[in-house]
Design a protein that fits this description.
The chain contains 7 helices and 7 strands, in the order αββααβααββαββα. With 220 residues, the chain is α+β, with helices and mostly antiparallel strands.
Length: 220
């Protein structure tokens, strides 16, 4: 198999795996997966809001999930680890799903947008952007954007620290897409310079020895 076809096949399997996890673990607040290949197998780290729903009673649910990952997706000896998200308001995939769920329930889009915007900023985010697009009102498509704070979308900080989330709300007029971008707090930015305060000077060992000799001479 050519190298290009191999990378395409791996990408398609990854997309299929993401869709399966979103459908299976959606109620648990699924936020993403990290896959690492180890000499003893494959470590699969799941980031969720409610780990108990993923593990299940006596670990039954996670055992079924492990078998499915091995048989259906061909992962070599998968070792599933479940990590709880301590602050879901700073996780863009979770917040995008919450917005989509609220839209499906019929809540006004502007009300949902501003409410989630305040909730994310109150959680300590540096900046947030929410984009809702689709058949919001009437037959014509519309795009609504909510924005607050500082948000960088390009460069190294955006690639490393920016949280991105996407979800779909299925309504009677049509499908509505939700995109959420969150800049977490305490992100080191290249344009921020911190000046350290100078520390108090410490006496050198030479000065201490000289002082000690003079003191002995005075005592004599």
């Amino acid at each position: 198999m050519p190298v290009e076809d191999k990378f395409i096949s791996m990408g398609l399997k990854r997309v299929e795996l993401e869709r399966y996890l979103e459908e299976t673990l959606g109620r648990a607040g699924y936020a993403g997966v990290e896959i690492r290949r180890l000499p003893i197998g494959t470590r699969v780290t799941l980031f969720v809001e409610r780990p108990g729903m993923v593990i299940g009673r006596k670990g039954r649910s996670i055992n079924v999930l492990t078998e499915e990952l091995e048989k259906r997706f061909g992962l070599d000896k998968p070792q599933v680890e479940v990590v709880e998200i301590k602050n879901p308001e700073l996780c863009a995939p979770i917040m995008a799903k919450r917005i989509a769920f609220a839209i499906e329930r019929g809540i006004n889009i502007r009300r949902v947008g501003y409410q989630m915007l305040r909730r994310i900023m109150n959680a300590g985010a540096r900046g947030v952007e929410i984009i809702i697009a689709g058949k919001i009102a009437g037959e014509r498509k519309k795009r609504v954007r909510f924005y607050q704070g500082y948000l960088c979308k390009t460069g190294d900080p955006a690639e490393k620290y920016l949280s991105r989330g996407y979800a779909i709300a299925k309504t009677k007029p049509g499908v509505i897409g939700v995109k959420v971008f969150i800049m977490p707090p305490d992100v080191p930015l290249p344009d921020e310079v911190k000046i350290a305060e100078p520390s108090a000077p410490q006496p050198s060992p030479v000065e201490e020895t000289a002082g000690g000799e003079s003191g002995e001479a005075e005592a004599q």
